[in-house]
Amino acid sequence: MHTFHLISKLQQSSNLWMKKQLRRVGIFWRLNLSFLLLLLTSSLFLTFFSFHQYSTEINLRLDRYVSLLVQNVELKAADTMKTYEDIALRFYDDARVLAAVSENARIGSPADSEEAALTEQNTRMIEYKLYTMSQNRKYIENVQFVTPGRQYRMVEENGFVRNGLIRDLDGFYHSDFYLLPQKQNGYPVWMDDRSQSHTFYRNDQSVYGIGNTVTLGIAVYEPTTRNFLGVLLLNVNLNAFSGSIDGYDAYKDGNTFLVGKDGVLTWFNPSILAPSFPSNPDLYASMLENKSGITRTVIDGRKLLFAYQQIPRSQMFATYIADLDVLLANARRIRNLCILVLICVVIAAFILSHYVTISISDPIRRLVRVMGKTADGRWTARYENSGNDEITILGDQFNEMAEKTNQLIEQVYLSEIRRQRAQISWKNAQLDAMLMQINPHFLYNTLDIIRWEAMYEANGESPVTQMIEKFSRLCRMGMKTGSNTIPLSEGIEHAVTYLDVINFRHSEKIELCLDTQGDTDTLYIPQFMLQPLMENAVTHAFRNVNRGCRITLCSSRKDNRLLITVEDNGCGMTPEELDALNSTLERSEASEKGIGIQNVHQRIRLFYGDSYGIHITSTPGKGTTITITLPIRTVSENMTDSTGG
């Protein structure tokens, strides 16, 4: 109890000290500085807090979208690789070809003409098989099969040799192109070594090797004995991966690359303004260690956003790199615009507060000066009114009081002078007594009573304030941005408020009849569902009807479903119009008519499924009934989490 009294006394003391300090400053500066302080504090907080939240959200979404980009590019590249791996498996799945390879390996060097003929027959079969694997595949540059003793090339049925030749076969046996597929024990492996342009040639006369390719290698084994037969090699042109970026034109502010251990293999939709892939060997080593990731880094003085994703069964990566200053340029422009708007608003508000303060302080100063003159005995001084506010009322009351006082003083003083000059000292004493009764304390109390009385008499409600209150409530409801469902009672309140606002502009009011069953506070529906249907009825149903307009809003439960009907007694629709509207509801694209209803219908279906939504019936001249079917929900749900946005 003692502590409570101590706190109360401290609070009273602090209040008195604060009031005393504030009273030392004039009204003009007190109001101006307080307005400016409040305005700057709130404006700066809202501006920079909103921008911080906005920037944070942009960065989160940027990371998410860029990560999705490289993941999808990686998936499309992996799908492309899977296509060529399936082509390679045709060789492995052909039992005759594998038997021919095994037989040639067993014969080795032919000892007689019969073995030579058999070896030649098997070779034609194997090499023609290699040729057929590349048919109708424009991105396959070369298909070869290399055994421990020889290499098989693509040969047409007529004996014409196609692309593909390994000149240094002994050196090839020591390269990754031959050894790495064997380490994978028959699983496909993709290799992007630059040495492939010095390994694979189109023919004996070619000066330059096959370039701009990646190599698919698969070790082939005899199915029954699992004896190693050789390595199947496909040189695939990098243009085969050009479709991996299709559908991502929105990411043109950056560059997307397909990167191998020796650097960039190919790029997709390159932009000169966007940064290129950095020549940093440590970067690839970090990528190889982490497999995937997204990071912000500084390279050559530029702040970069870098994302990467490794492609399975290879040492290749789908990467995206962009300049953060370019990506965030719009956000910074918005920040600068917000600051500019803030400065303009502060200047405009300060000018407004300056004139508002002057409109209060100047009349009070003039009234104080007039009161000072009367205190000096100049009762002829009057306050000149120039407004229609409470200060004007105080001035009028002061002028009236001063006029009456002056008349009284003049009447008493003159009559006493004429009647008895000898008693002037007594009259002066009487005048002094009278002046003492009109003291400042009495005057300020009187003015304060008049001020509060005037404020009391001016207070009141009017249709205009009711209209503003209804409309502000509707706007406040419309500014909700969440994606959660709301109670049915709140949706009905939104619809009722909307119709109340609409009725302000109609001489003949639209009647709203409510018929709800069950507890509307425990049933949840999507936001902004009923108001578009009410708006549709007001706009279309009553376009040719002037009086007797009525909308009936009903809700009921049937099995595990919530049925909501919005029925009007308007002009209705013809069967053709009704069929056209119902068909519009089933289309995914937007229509020029019924956009609000279509939006509500599609949101319901996206959230709850195709068995729910809107059904419309109508009779010309009698009206239209819109039935909404929803599942029973007794808790709020987040529609964004359920629908992906």
UniProtKB/TrEMBL annotation:
Keywords: Kinase, Membrane, Phosphoprotein, Transferase, Transmembrane, Transmembrane helix, Two-component regulatory system. Gene3D superfamilies: 6.10.340.10, Histidine kinase-like ATPase, C-terminal domain (3.30.565.10), PAS domain (3.30.450.20). Its main location: membrane. It is found in: Membrane. It catalyses: ATP + protein L-histidine = ADP + protein N-phospho-L-histidine. It is an enzyme of class 2 (transferase). SMART domains: HAMP, HATPase_c. Residues 358-410 form the HAMP domain. Its EC number is 2.7.13.3. It holds the Pfam family HAMP. PANTHER family: SENSOR HISTIDINE KINASE YPDA. This is histidine kinase. It comes from Enterocloster alcoholdehydrogenati.
